[in-house]
Amino acid sequence: MSARALRLLPALLLACSGGGPTPTAPTPPPPAAAPAPAVPSDSPPVPSDSPPVPADSPPLATPAPLAAIELTFVGDIIFGRYRGDNTFDAIPGPDDHPFAEIAETMRSDLLIGNLETPLTRDLPHKSPIGAQYRFGASKEMAQHLVDGGFTALSLANNHAFDLRAQGMLDSPVILRELGLIPLGASRTEPPLFRVETIERNHWKVGILAVTARRNAPHFDGTPELPFLSTTDFDALLSPVIAAARPSHDLIIVFVHWGEEYADDPAPHQRRAAKALLDHGADLVVGHHPHVLQGIERHGRGAVAYSLGNFLFENTHDIPRLTGVLRARFTPERCLETLTFHPAYIKRIPSKHPAPATRGLGKQVRERMTTLSASLDTSFELRGEDLTLSSFPCTPATAPPPPAPTPAAP
Question: Considering the entire predicted model, what is its pTM?
């Protein structure tokens, strides 16, 4: 081979190799996945996993455990009355604070009283009715209830019509405007008897406020008072309590009933109260007689038949004796203690409730212990107060959690 051919041999070999590196063998593809089995068209959809919670979302809330709760109750409250010449005679003066002296005794999670007077925006100078005892009050007077720490007031009593239909309509509206809860207001729509719910500190407290006393019949076209005879309590109120029981932690019956100035409840009152407790009420608290009556244990609860007057113009020896009833319930929804704080209506500088101590306290306690003893109920003396304890703890069923939404078919 010539020298020139030897020089061209490397170029010829490179041209035959394609001019680049030798290619590697291709990687075989992965085996194809087996097809998923077909889902029949009538099969329910397979639930997907829950969506992720965004990082900035708060944790899901858990129901807060209940702590013990205390409720306090007082009797009849008015702010004045129309006298014989039909002019209004106010009880508290413009600079008076009628509940200041007893505010600490009344303090609790819920304070409830009987407002034995209708409210109106412009109190008339003359009463619109001709009855002997005629009550009324303005919104400005009702501000005393706010200052006293009240939570709710019952309007179910025999003086609801003292300012006629306008007072029946105005009263619950004015209370709400003041931040107070009206109970037992006259109705313009059914149901006439209802459990009204107050929520405090994770408790759902149901109040059934009714009256077995009225001063005027129901007139067509006017709101209707939640009125019924005591002998009808079991038939008409027990179903209302039973229906409300599963959705409430407590059920309280707050009732205007009984005979004025009577020392003892009538037998039919005792039967009615016990029937309400047997059907799920935790406590029955009464008013109207204008004097204190006894307290009676029954089952897991009790009945306070009358708390008497509280802010009232009658300051005779027996009607001026009054008190504050305190009920303490455990987180298990059981009545732990029922305490009676003695009080009286003080005459100066204007009539107002005050704690009863020393000689007056002894007088109030003697009346309460004597009248309760006739109902087979005895108290423990704790300082100036009378206390009942050791109630059976067989609570009603707690309100159930919301039912889960059923899956679509």
Answer: 0.82
Comparing 42-56, 97-111, 122-136, 215-229, the range with the smallest average pLDDT is 42-56
Residue 94 pLDDT: 87
**Residue whose C-alpha is closest to residue 395's, from 241, 229, 281:** 281
- The dihedral of CA 134, 212, 269, 69: what is its sign? negative
CB 165 within 8 A of CB 222: yes
How does DSSP assign 238-284, residue by residue?
Answer: HHHHHHHGGG-SEEEEEEE-S-TT-SS--HHHHHHHHHHHHTT-SEE
Residue 81 structure tokens: 């009355």
Tens digit of each residue's pLDDT (9 = 90 or more) over 161-170: 888 889 899 9
Domain boundaries, the chain: 69-389
Token couple for 289: 């007689």
pLDDT digits (tens, 9 = 90+) for 207-219: 999 999 988 888 8
- In the predicted structure, residue 353 carries a pLDDT above the cut 60: yes
Which fold is adopted by the domain 69-389? Purple Acid Phosphatase; chain A, domain 2 (3.60.21)
The closest alpha carbon to 165, from 127, 123, 219, belongs to 219
**DSSP single-letter state for residue 370:** H
CB within 8 A of 18, min separation 6: which ones?
A: none
pLDDT tens digits for 302-340? 999 999 999 999 999 999 999 999 999 999 999 999 999
Residues 6 or more apart whose CB falls under 8 angstroms from that of 119 comprise 136, 137, 138, 139, 141, 142, 163, 167, 170, 171, 174, 175
Q: What angle do CA 286, 297, 194 make, to 5 degrees?
A: 40
Structural tokens at position 393: 């703890």
DSSP code of 231? G
Are 362 and 297 in contact, with CB atoms under 8 Å apart? no
For 53, which DSSP code?
Answer: P
